[in-house]
Design brief:
Layout (H helix, E strand, L loop, with lengths): L1 H27 L6 H13 L8 E3 L6 H29 L6 H15 L4 E3 L1
Antiparallel strand pairs: 1-2
Organism: Litorilinea aerophila
Protein name: YccF domain-containing protein
GO cellular component, one term: plasma membrane
């Protein structure tokens, strides 16, 4: 089921979402200050390529001081917009029975898009 879900996900929007994250990450990496945020954006893009069969995992040092500060900066500058986008897409997809599994994947990506430092999709 995961393979079929990931293939359908890629065809109907997952590739475009991942491409947006990756391009945004590359643009953020153009400045020295933006490199940590750009790398997280690229990580989100790679995670959104195939979200079926994976879950959000927190690393052992996810709540270190520097990661908390970076997560707060991310949340204020980028995170809330990304989370609202995933929530909007999940609401649209949840209208139909066929779209419910895809809505669940968008819901799964919300915590990762809100605070990506110290978290990963595995």
């Amino acid at each position: 089921m995961s393979l079929l879900g990931n293939i359908i996900w890629l065809i109907f929007g997952g590739f475009v979402t991942a491409l947006g994250y990756i391009i945004g990450g590359i643009v953020l990496c153009l400045t020295i200050v933006g490199i940590p945020f750009g790398l997280q954006s690229i990580k989100l893009g790679l995670a959104s390529l195939a979200p079926f069969g994976k879950e959000v995992v927190e690393s052992p040092h996810a709540n270190s001081t520097l990661r908390i500060i970076f997560n707060l900066i991310w949340l204020v500058l980028f995170g809330w917009e990304l989370a609202l986008s995933h929530l909007f897409h999940a609401a649209i997809l949840a209208i139909t029975i066929i779209g419910i599994p895809f809505a669940k994947q968008h819901i799964k990506l919300i915590p990762l898009s809100l605070m990506p430092f110290g978290r990963d999709l595995r």
